[in-house]
Specification:
306 residues, Arginase, Chain A, 36% helix, 10 helices, alpha/beta
């Protein structure tokens, strides 16, 4: 990453993959919380590309284990093209979600870019959930519980082949951090695929510093680092404005350290910020916390020592 990252904000105002309405208002809440000025204060060159458009949320029950599959595909197609276009221009795409199903379009675009440029890919999945469900395992049919599985090749062809390559990524490219809510069948599939998961028990036992050292190990100059930040990664007391709060997540300080250690690598190449739900928030505090942590990803540091 150059000394001044060139960041493009891309809004994707939809909640088609979620079980609760409201994540569609996430992009605006992040803007209200002064995301662009916060990044500019870190020396970033920021362009706000505005919001992508896609089909409305029809709010229907699942069909064959998927809710709103056509709408999810449409949104992920526009996200894929938008993210890929920014990467091709040498810019850092910052996807403002929207629900986490959008990670399918975003990360498949990053993986496509890495294949085109001969780079290795590392994905940090910061989330309370493993998001490794399939249509046969899912209790809800909500696609925001499936994106990692889809990216690893489990799912409908319209999503698994989005970037023209199947699977978009291999499980060994992913490090999941903060996980504390996994369905039983989903857990078996995670184990079968050898996904590397640093769950909350691991973080409690080993600490966030060791966790991040492990998750960031072996990054080199040829590695593109993608961070997919689901705001429900944070403890619900810190971040109430999400549709799927799970108690016992990282504290504000732990999250801060996580973000600062990612920034220290200098390898951040793309970012998703998803599942912010202003309808469930308190005076936009979750958006403000998210903006603060995003600024830390771009170099805002609590470090005083040399």
């Amino acid at each position: 990453m150059s000394s001044a990252p060139r960041v493009s904000l891309i809004g994707a105002p939809t909640d088609v993959g979620a079980g609760v309405r409201g994540a569609s208002m996430g992009p605006e809440a992040l803007r209200v919380a002064q995301l662009q000025p916060a990044l500019e204060a870190q020396g970033c060159d920021v362009i706000d590309r505005g919001n992508l458009s896609g089909p409305p949320n029809p709010w229907q029950p699942p069909v064959n284990g998927y809710r709103h599959l056509d709408e999810v595909v449409a949104w992920n197609q526009v996200v894929h093209e938008a993210v890929h276009a920014e990467l091709q221009q040498g810019r850092l795409p910052l996807l403002l979600g929207g629900d986490h199903c959008l990670g399918i379009g975003s990360i498949s675009a990053v993986a496509r870019y890495c294949r085109e440029t001969g780079k290795k890919l590392r994905v940090l999945w910061l989330d309370a959930h493993a998001d490794f469900n399939t249509n046969t395992l899912t209790p809800t049919g909500n696609v925001h519980g499936m994106p990692v599985a889809v990216l690893c090749g489990h799912g409908p062809q319209a999503l698994t082949h989005l970037g023209g390559h199947h699977p978009a990524i291999k499980p060994q490219m992913v490090r999941q951090i903060g996980i504390r809510s996994v369905d039983a069948g989903e857990k078996r599939l995670v184990h079968a695929e050898n996904l590397e998961v640093f769950d909350m028990r691991y973080i409690d036992e080993m600490g966030m510093r060791h966790t991040m050292e492990m998750a960031l190990a072996l990054l080199d100059a040829q590695t593109h680092l993608h961070v997919s930040f689901d705001v429900d990664f944070l403890d619900a007391e810190v971040a109430p404005g999400v549709g799927t709060t799970v108690r016992g997540g990282p504290t504000y300080r732990e999250a801060q350290l996580c973000m600062e250690m990612i920034a220290d690598t200098g390898r951040l190449g793309s970012l998703d910020v998803v599942e912010l739900n202003p309808a469930l928030d308190v005076r936009n505090q979750t958006a403000e916390v998210a903006v603060d942590l995003i600024a830390s990803l771009f170099g805002k540091s609590t470090l005083m020592r040399r």
